[in-house]
Please model this.
Amino acid sequence: MADLKSSKLIYLKGWLFLLILIISVTLLVANSPRWTTVVLVLLVTWSAARFYYFMFYVIEKYVDGTYKFEGIVSFLRYLLREQEQHKKDEENV
Model:
């Protein structure tokens, strides 16, 4: 699949993600209308966004400048490679 290049389609994609979020939160809260549900949904949303930011920005800018984020699977592969390299480094000490 080719990269999305149209700025209008990129914005549309972002708004559709927001729409999915709003509908999902509304259905969850309607299914279980308690303050704990609202708080947990807010915490999940916030922490998921922060973790995604961590994967694509923090690692590349502050930990490993050679790492280029391509998606969640690429991040998992990166972690596995880093773990293997760390083990090799410890064996060589």
Notes: Residues 1-33 form one domain.
